[in-house]
Amino acid sequence: MFTFSLTLVRHGETQYNRDKLLQGQGVDTSLSETGVQQGEAVGRYLKGIPFNHVFVSNLQRAVQTAELILSNNTHCSGMEMVLEPLLRERGFGVCEGHPKEDLKNMANACGQPCRDFTPPGGETLDQVRLRFKKFLKVLFKRLLEEHGWSQPDASAGLSEAANGTSAAAAAASDTAPAGSADDGLQGVSVHALVVSHGAYIRVANKHLVEDLDSSLPAGVRMSQLFSPCPNTGIARFLVTLSKSESGSPVLTAVRCFFTNRKSHLDDLQAAE
């Protein structure tokens, strides 16, 4: 058995975010001044977590955010990031570079919810989900190659997560947004950080919860889990793999500790 933590972070604000314009994959913008401050803030919040691996969308707003996280981390400064195209934002086709309102109007004209609508040339939600599933395979392979199947602390972390008895699990609920940065990490020695994008992370969360049957934080509604991820919002899952008869990894348990956490931004918002 092999257990690791998966921490997902959305990139910081860009000017396109501020102006409510769609970026997708075709508009590769850098962080705004506020986005840099958000990146610094999430970096300080996560500074004590010894990430073993960092996977990042190869769009510059995600790369910049990851650089800020690592530069503030007491364990990971100078760590090499893996730039992964599978983590790029959902493609929005003809709507990229245009106001989000245009996408909403197109969806309304087709009688579809905006989040589910695929504009011409864009990616469907199923296509984004497939990209995330492919990324999980890449992630599992990389972690097992470097760490092997023998993880002495993994069973303890899994036991606490499965029983829901750990103090960290209780503190991790979205009903307690000021929870500790190490919620869900107790008893686990391998930690992966992923820096990606809002629409992509929402699809990833839905896949982990709905398709892979992740257990949920106590008292948290599904609508909270799948609400829009704020810039530098954080999600965390505990993932356990088992070895199949063929020797390949099989996902056997997932626990969600929190999604869309943004308490690290409180001081920035108060200053505005």
What report would you give on this structure?
The protein is α/β, with parallel strands linked by helices and 272 residues long. Helix content is 38%, strand content 16%. It is built from 10 helices and 6 strands. A 6-stranded mixed sheet has the order 3-2-4-1-5-6. The longest helix is centred in the middle third of the chain and has 23 residues, at 125-147. It is globular and about 55 Å long. The model is unreliable at 153-177 (pLDDT under 50).
Q: Tell me, rounded to a whole number, the average pLDDT.
A: 88
Question: Oligomer, anyone?
Answer: single chain
Radius of gyration: 18 Å
Q: Strand share of the residues? A: 15-25%
**What sort of overall outline do the alpha carbons produce when their principal axes are compared?**
globular
Elements, N to C (H/E): EHHEHEHHHHEHHEEH
Q: Strands of the largest sheet, in order across it?
A: 3-2-4-1-5-6
Structural descriptors:
272 residues; alpha/beta; six-stranded mixed β-sheet; 10 helices; 38% helix
Task: Report a brief summary of the structure.
By secondary structure, the protein is of the alpha/beta class.
Question: Helices, strands, pairings?
Answer:
Layout: E1 2-10, H1 15-18, H2 33-45, E2 53-56, H3 60-72, E3 82-83, H4 100-109, H5 125-147, H6 154-163, H7 167-171, E4 191-196, H8 198-211, H9 222-225, E5 234-243, E6 249-261, H10 266-271
Parallel strand pairs: 1-4, 2-3, 2-4
Antiparallel strand pairs: 1-5, 5-6
Helix pairs in contact: 2-3, 5-8
